[in-house]
Amino acid sequence: xxxxxxxxxxxxxxxxxxxxxxxxxxxxxxxxxxxxxxxxxxxxxxxxxxxxxxxxxxxxxxxxxxxxxxxxxxxxxxxxxxxxxxxxxxxxxxxxxxxxxxxxxxxxxxxxxxxxxxxxxxxxxxxxxxxxxxxxxxxxxxxxxxxxxxxxxxxxxxxxxxxxxxxxxxxxxxxxxxxxxxxxxxxxxxxxxxxxxxxxxxxxxxxxxxxxxxxxxxxxxxxxxxxxxxxxxxxxxxxxxxxxxxxxxxxxxxxxxxxxxxxxxxxxxxxxxxxxxxxxxxxxxxxxxxxxxx
Length: 294
Prior knowledge:
This protein is mostly helical. The protein is built from 13 helices and no strands. It folds into two domains: 1-36, no CATH class; 52-293, Orthogonal Bundle (MetI-like fold). Helix 2 packs across helix 13. The chain is flat. It starts with a helix and ends with a helix.
């Protein structure tokens, strides 16, 4: 009994630094954030508790539309990353001369500092000097300059495409590593049996990539949902709020309007939305894993 108790105490001692770190860095600021969301804190040194007033203001200000826009923006961005990343990984896995060069070029969007890359895309979207607008005019697709970031629909898709450009390299190389970990014996056996490329992809590659796809999709979704730099640098959430997501709206209220209590309430809503989604996501993953075992 003494030996068992000593082993347990030793285990607790090993866990204590990690527990203290999580409590100080994650748990305590989170508790403070929740407490702040029930106050009317601002630039004034003193503030008072206002109950759920900040949360009622959220839904009175059209926050539901912002939530919907955030989920659709995230859905399209992550979907494009998964599709393009899968295609890119398959092409980079082919044994061709100069494959290392193509892999290096694929890394460029990831290597370039994010702010510089976003500013570059901002110039490309410019209606007067941008390359994209110039090409459209040269090929006769448009009769005049197109200011992509000045209109709601084009600005929305411009931010999506920029996020896809930045996030696709990570997805591509993650999927490439997953493909290269698949045993070659499976492909050789299928090839001997006369299976074509499409059949081998559908029956071997794709099923073996499912764990990597599930992992990368949740990582990409969380980072995309919380994306701030891309939208803020390109459009500041405009025009007319057409590219304002939950994170952008939280920043505008908390930092732009100095309404820290309302901003904290919005950030709590961001955390709740992500938490609920992750809960359903992991339940779905557990069901899929159980079905595979059966």
